[in-house]
């Protein structure tokens, strides 16, 4: 029995059912979590292990994380001196997203807590939709109809974030065309370098890979 499960039918049994909300904007075709075992899945898994989440990469961003936490402490201290209320959840969300955006794009994506709150709301809604009971998942014939409108709503969430990421990737590609470009040594440069040698990793794949990061910070 164990041999049947772990060897003979291991690939079939390891496949996951893809909720309709995960398939929005074809995200399931680029997600390590939902791709079936295949060459592209193995390649993405290898990149995550050896490049994006290696000890060297994480150590390189240690100063950025320390700087952002210190900035958060300074902002809270300044508010306390002025007698202003501090919404810890919002302030922490801004810091978390800026740590991620610096690790990936070497920029502060959010300069204000208001923008961070809006971005957080998008990802919160994204997670809620992934976990929401969907009739189309139980009755596939309803997928074309999308009776609850969950896929349409999720598509808007994904597109909103992908548009931001697409702009940042295009900006970096334009910078890399210059003769005096100096590498940022961030995750985006890593993925763009890989894409030059590996045809399986294209611009769309890169954008969807980075889309997942803020959902599970």
Describe this entry's structure for a reader.
It is globular, with a radius of gyration of 20 Å. It has 11 helices and no strands. With 217 residues, it is an all-alpha fold.
Descriptive labels:
single chain, 217 residues, 65% helix
Give a summary of the structure in a few sentences.
With 217 residues, the protein is an all-alpha fold. It has helices spanning 2-8, 10-14, 39-52, 55-60, 62-82, 88-105, 113-131, 135-138, 150-176, 187-197, 203-212.
Q: Write down the overall geometry.
A: globular
Average the pLDDT over all residues and give the rounded result: 87
Distance N terminus to C terminus? 38 Å
Characterize the main sheet. Answer: none
Q: Give me the count of strands.
A: 0
Helix content: 55-70%
Low-confidence spans: pLDDT under 50, at least 5 residues?
Answer: none
Please give the count of helices.
Answer: 11
Beta fraction? under 5%
Gyration radius, to the nearest Å?
20 Å
Sheet/helix structural class = mainly alpha
Order of helices and strands: HHHHHHHHHHH
């Amino acid at each position: 029995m164990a041999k049947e499960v772990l060897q003979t039918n291991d690939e079939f049994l390891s496949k996951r059912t893809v909720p309709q909300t995960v398939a929005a904007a074809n995200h399931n075709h680029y997600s390590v979590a939902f791709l079936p075992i295949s060459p592209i899945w193995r390649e993405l898994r290898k990149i995550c292990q050896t490049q994006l989440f290696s000890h060297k990469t994480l150590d390189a961003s240690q100063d950025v994380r320390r700087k952002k936490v210190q900035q958060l402490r300074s902002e809270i201290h300044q508010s306390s001196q002025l007698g202003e209320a501090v919404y810890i959840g919002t302030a922490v969300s801004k810091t978390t997203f800026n740590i991620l955006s610096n690790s990936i794009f070497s920029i502060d994506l959010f300069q204000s807590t208001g923008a961070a709150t809006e971005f957080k709301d998008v990802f919160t809604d994204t997670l809620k939709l992934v976990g929401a009971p969907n009739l189309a998942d139980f009755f596939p014939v309803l997928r074309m109809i999308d009776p609850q409108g969950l896929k349409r709503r999720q598509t808007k969430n994904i597109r909103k974030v992908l548009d931001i990421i697409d702009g940042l990737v295009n900006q970096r590609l334009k910078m890399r065309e210059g003769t005096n470009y100096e590498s940022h040594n961030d995750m985006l440069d890593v993925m763009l370098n890989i894409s030059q040698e590996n045809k399986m990793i294209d611009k769309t794949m890169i954008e969807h890979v980075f889309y997942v990061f803020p959902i599970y910070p």
